[in-house]
């Protein structure tokens, strides 16, 4: 990744430049890769609090009396029974069951829902929702350009945020959302995140982003964190990344996420027939965790090989783990492969790895 002058700038772009961030083109947006040390940023989230700009994400609203039913048809989850103020992790799939994107859906009111899509897929998700909602009393409104998204993640996040809001954060459970004022600006406050730590994601008007960021960043111990730290944090937490663990050629069942597919919900939904068939057929591969015995990190695209050197899988994400102190990776292994004696081909050298259950890290 490198900086592209034609890439979109988030509302916090000038703040990142002032902080000396290494800016790169990510999904068509100029985003901070790191500010100084990505390891220090990672550790700040694990031990204190890190501050992230996630304004590249897509916010797509569905509203109207048929919005819940439209989402039930468009997505693999059973969304319409979800109470107001709750959120759910789900996916949008093609007719063949391939994953078009993984999403978080928030119910903001009886007839108002917010779908948060990955930046690279926001257009695909919006177009699919428009098409799939056509037969329902539901309006689709892409408000991505109007919002900034700031995440405060880490064990200190609640205590820090309570200094800026009267919202009842103590009663806000994981995967829930409320409206409140934070540092003097209106915000949707969600207890969600992509780091494996407790934390909050704050949806605010783009014009309020700088004010909110500067207020939170002024707190002692709050460390601005970039994409590199976010990637190692989510990798340790075993969270999939679209384009790595999830693609249009990947099914939820291969990724070990069949639980999000609600085949028993009322009515039809896009991809149901293919997904129902896949649920009854053992997948040809499975997603696993790998821990390297040596110091060389497996990287995306590296082959996993058997003790005899035969290819038997592919690494989807890999990096040195700042928390564990050893290289880790997620990889797809062919079904039936014996897990003992595996290695990863790291530039021509077979580096031994151990297969472990995901996640690598789970907060206490």
Automatic annotation (TrEMBL):
* UniProt-listed GO biological process terms: glycine decarboxylation via glycine cleavage system; methylation
Q: Might you report a single GO cellular component term?
A: cytosol
GO MF term set: aminomethyltransferase activity; methyltransferase activity; transaminase activity
> Which residue range or ranges hold the GCVT N-terminal domain?
12-265
Q: What is its EC number?
A: 2.1.2.10
Q: Which residues bind substrate?
A: 201
**SUPFAM superfamilies to which the protein is assigned, alphabetical:** Aminomethyltransferase beta-barrel domain, Folate-binding domain
**Catalysed reaction per UniProt?**
N(6)-[(R)-S(8)-aminomethyldihydrolipoyl]-L-lysyl-[protein] + (6S)-5,6,7,8-tetrahydrofolate = N(6)-[(R)-dihydrolipoyl]-L-lysyl-[protein] + (6R)-5,10-methylene-5,6,7,8-tetrahydrofolate + NH4(+)
**InterPro entries the record matches:** GcvT (IPR006223), GcvT/YgfZ/DmdA (IPR028896), GcvT/YgfZ_C (IPR029043), GcvT_bac (IPR022903), GcvT_C (IPR013977), GCVT_N (IPR006222), TrmE/GcvT-like (IPR027266)
Positions in coiled-coil regions: none
Enzyme class, top EC level, equals transferase
Domain called Aminomethyltransferase C-terminal: residue spans = 285-362
Q: Which UniProt keywords apply?
A: Aminotransferase, Methyltransferase, Transferase
Which Pfam families does the annotation name?
Answer: GCV_T (PF01571), GCV_T_C (PF08669)
Q: Does the keyword Phosphoprotein apply?
A: no
Family label: Belongs to the GcvT family.
Q: Which NCBIfam families match?
A: gcvT (TIGR00528), PRK00389.1 (NF001567)
Q: Which PANTHER family match?
A: AMINOMETHYLTRANSFERASE, AMINOMETHYLTRANSFERASE, MITOCHONDRIAL
Q: What does this protein do?
A: The glycine cleavage system catalyzes the degradation of glycine.
Q: How does it assemble?
A: The glycine cleavage system is composed of four proteins: P, T, L and H.
In Swiss-Prot or TrEMBL terms, this protein is called Aminomethyltransferase
Species: Actinomadura mexicana
